[in-house]
Amino acid sequence: MTPPPLRLVLFDFDGVLARYSHAARLAHLARVAGCTPARLSEVVFNSGLERAYDSGVLDTASYLQQLGAGLGCTIDADIWIASRCAGTQADPLALELVASVATRVQVGMLTNNGALMLDAIPRIVAPLFPMLEGRVLCSGVLGVRKPDRAIFDHALAQFDVRAQETLFVDDLFVNVQGARAAGLHADTVVDARSMRTVLRRYGVLPTGLGAAV
């Protein structure tokens, strides 16, 4: 029996469409907060605060309040977004591939990040907007993180497609495994070159496009 054609390609964000530098992000925010990157890392990451926010346990207001309290200063949304942008650089070739795929099937994004990334992502990968407006799903909003099957079920419902009609790409194999367990087609990509290979294999990249990658 011939499988149904793909209708949606879901892309991860960090490590797929953009390169994330944890050190650069910490350095930027530490300068604003007047502390060392090590202190910032302790407050944000070692404490579990960031994971709680990415998981939807904390809303944005509570997250920023606890972050500021831990650092002894005020961190608002604009400061947070500026530091995230400082630590994240779009991959232009990957963005070209996404735009090419969008001429054939639906595209969307599924990322393990908190709700503030809904404002940061359009700044980081601006060429994909407004095409991706309303098509970015964050774990902090959905209340569940990859690789949990529930997040993929949420995504399928959001885009009104079946698992067999969806391809998911991520730089972490554990997330790919989660997607496959939910019935999606899924593969690991680590750069634009490997992304092009996967997209061509699944027949969602228009012929002749992406050849320069």
Automatic annotation (TrEMBL):
SUPFAM superfamilies in alphabetical order: HAD-like
**Mind telling me which Gene3D superfamilies this protein's record contains?**
HAD superfamily/HAD-like, Putative phosphatase, domain 2
Q: What InterPro entries does the annotation carry?
A: HAD-like_sf, HAD-SF_hydro_IA, HAD_sf, PGP-like_dom2
Residues in a coiled coil are none
Query: What domain of life does the native source organism fall in?
Result: Bacteria
Descriptive protein name: HAD family phosphatase
Q: Which organism is it from?
A: Luteimonas fraxinea
